[in-house]
Amino acid sequence: MRRVSILGATGSIGQNTVDLIARNPDRFQVVALTGGANIDQLAADARALKAQLAVTAHAGHYQALRAALSGTGIEAAAGPEALIEAGARPADWVMSAIVGAAGLAPGLRALEQGATLALANKESLVCAGRLVLDTAQRHAARLLPVDSEHSAVFQALIGEDISAVERIVITASGGAFRDWPLEALKEATLEQASSHPNWAMGQRITIDSASMFNKALEVIETKEYFGISPEQIEVIVHPESIIHAMVGFRDGALMAHLGAPDMRHAIGYALNWPDRRHLPVARLDLAQLAQLNFRAPDAARYPALALARQVMRRGGLSGAVFNAAKERALDHFIAGRIGFLEMAATVEAVLDRFETDPGLIDAPMTLDNVTQTDHLARIRADETIGARAG
Ligand code: NDP
Ligand code: MG
């Protein structure tokens, strides 16, 4: 029996993970599940999977969670500290699927106890790549990618020498607005940005797909996880989302990973690694697909991609600034306070403002410094947006 925990169990990735684990009850012993506001789902899954511990991120939901679990013997806990403790509960495998920088600290704790960390939370690598990798190394813990592109690259690299890699190409669907006229983007609504042409995902990553901030995060994630230089990372728009990534080798070979757009593949791969087991994902009918299309991403449509390049050039804690400013800009877009295109403008302005005090970005990458930088970048984003609105 493998002991497993799911951080962010009530989300889109979390629910797919719950599904895969529930199909194999005799292979897994569930240690901890965490969620946020969705107490009913959290309690139902904790009961169904016979978890030891259920944690909500919000202290205000503690009583509701406790009540929902009464008589089950399942421990209930709440708040950010309890989330971190959930990550620290001894387990063999931990899914990191909290959305945003909030996933960083619990994931680090999972690595510190030597667990294999299945990383859906790309923000961890964007904010604190070196810290995450060093923590894994120090505790002999393994980090497995769950993002579909990175899982694809990981699989294409099996048995290969990273020094023979010339380039990594990650695909992007282009999101909800890939075929919109550029002028119309300014007026794009929350509802329009919240639907994805191919993937069913949480609302935040869906909007980040429309703006390509998701791909921007993924480019940085690729650099951090695989340790290759930014110039070796390419993004190609591939509207069908069938090829998830390609690895180009120095002899000219380009190895592609194909699959239906279903996150249960990448999650199940990480869950079963290093084995491959049957997974309940659709098999591709290539004759029916008939063709796959590609186009270069349009820099004017997707300014987030250039910002990611700027962040990789800058290094230090600029990834934490970038991610936090993006999260805050997204909060404001969701709340209807800024337009779709103002998200990238806000992030750019916050990155520029940090350059007036470079000491902050060049501080050592500790969890405290990352957390403080994240906090300050959110304040700067609020100020920028306030300034814009005013
Ligand atoms: P969702 O929004 O669907 O779920 C997020 C999860 O995090 C939920 O369990 C939510 O709880 C919880 N949560 C929200 N805010 C906090 C907080 N402040 N502290 C602790 N927990 C919190 O997100 P996704 O599942 O779509 O994405 C999760 C992560 O995986 C993200 O990093 C995303 O980029 C990444 N990812 C997602 C993919 C996808 O297909 N969805 C693909 C590749 C990567 P509740 O809902 O109960 O409030
Ligand atoms: Mg992805």
From TrEMBL:
NADPH binds at T10, G11, S12, I13, G36, N38, N121, E123, G202. The gene is dxr. Residues 4-129 form the 1-deoxy-D-xylulose 5-phosphate reductoisomerase N-terminal domain. It catalyses: 2-C-methyl-D-erythritol 4-phosphate + NADP(+) = 1-deoxy-D-xylulose 5-phosphate + NADPH + H(+). Belongs to the DXR family. It comes from Ruegeria spongiae. HAMAP family: DXP_reductoisom. The lineage of its organism: Bacteria, Pseudomonadati, Pseudomonadota, Alphaproteobacteria, Rhodobacterales. InterPro entries: DXP_reductoisomerase, DXP_reductoisomerase_C, DXP_reductoisomerase_N, DXPR_C, DXPR_C_sf, NAD(P)-bd_dom_sf. Its EC number is 1.1.1.267. Keywords: Isoprene biosynthesis, Magnesium, Manganese, Metal-binding, NADP, Oxidoreductase. This is 1-deoxy-D-xylulose 5-phosphate reductoisomerase. Pathway: Isoprenoid biosynthesis; isopentenyl diphosphate biosynthesis via DXP pathway; isopentenyl diphosphate from 1-deoxy-D-xylulose 5-phosphate: step 1/6. GO terms for molecular function: 1-deoxy-D-xylulose-5-phosphate reductoisomerase activity. Residues 258-378 form the DXP reductoisomerase C-terminal domain. Residues 143-226 form the 1-deoxy-D-xylulose 5-phosphate reductoisomerase C-terminal domain. NCBIfam families: Dxr. Its cofactor is Mg(2+); Mn(2+). Mn(2+) binds at D147, E149, E218. 1-deoxy-D-xylulose 5-phosphate binds at K122, S148, E149, S173, H196, S209, N214, K215, E218. Catalyzes the NADPH-dependent rearrangement and reduction of 1-deoxy-D-xylulose-5-phosphate (DXP) to 2-C-methyl-D-erythritol 4-phosphate (MEP).
